[in-house]
Amino acid sequence: QVQLVESGGGLVQAGGSLRLSCAASGRTFSSYAMGWFRQAPGKEREFVAAISWSGGSTSYEDSVKGRFTISRDNAQNTVYLQMNSLKPEDTAVYYCAANPNRHTVVAQYWGQGTQVTVSS
C-alpha cells in the first residue's frame, strides 16, 4: 500500500514557476514508476510527465516539454514536478500517481491532488 500526498500548488502569474512535491509512504516507493497528471475544469484527466523507478528515464506530454521537469529522490520517498514558464492553460488540479499508464490514465495509486492556477 502506498499513500501519496501532493503539495506546492498555488496561484502564479503567467511566466512564473511552481514546484510540486509528492510525498509517498511505504518502503517500496523506489520500486514504482511515478507520474504526474492534471485535470482542468470540464476536461478529462491527462498525462503530464512520468519517471522510471530509478529516475533514469522520463517522458513528457508535448505541451509541457522544455518547461516542466520531473525528478525523484528515492531516499526521501518524494517525486517532484518543476514547472517553469507557466501558462494559463496549465491551470488544473495536478495529481501524483504510482505505476501510471500514460495512455489509459490509470494508476495503481493516486494522490488527492493540488490546485495550480495560472493567471494571465
What is the molecular shape?
A: globular
What kind of sheet is the major sheet? Answer: 7 strands, mixed
Share of helix among residues? Answer: under 10%
Structural class: mainly beta
- What's the rounded overall pLDDT mean? 96
Oligomer type: single chain
**Beta-strand percentage range:** over 45%
Can you write the helix and strand succession as a string?
EEEEEEEEEEE
Number of helices: 0
Low-confidence segments, given as residue ranges, are none
Structure report:
The chain is mostly beta strands and 120 residues long. Helix content is 0%, strand content 48%. It is built from no helices and eleven strands. Strands 2, 4, 5, 6, 9, 10 and 11 form a seven-stranded mixed β-sheet that branches. A four-stranded antiparallel β-sheet has the order 1-3-8-7, with no helix packed on it. Strand 5 and strand 6 form a beta hairpin. It is globular and about 40 Å long. The model has no long low-confidence stretch (mean pLDDT 96).
Task: Walk me through the topology.
Layout lengths: L3 E4 L2 E4 L4 E7 L9 E6 L6 E6 L6 E3 L7 E6 L4 E6 L8 E7 L10 E2 L3 E6 L1
Parallel strand pairs: 2-11
Antiparallel strand pairs: 1-3, 3-8, 4-5, 4-9, 5-6, 7-8, 9-10, 9-11
Please describe the structure with a list of short key phrases separated by commas or semicolons.
120 residues; mainly beta; seven-stranded mixed beta sheet; four-stranded antiparallel beta sheet; 11 strands; globular
Gist?
The chain has 120 residues and is mainly beta. It has no helices and eleven strands.
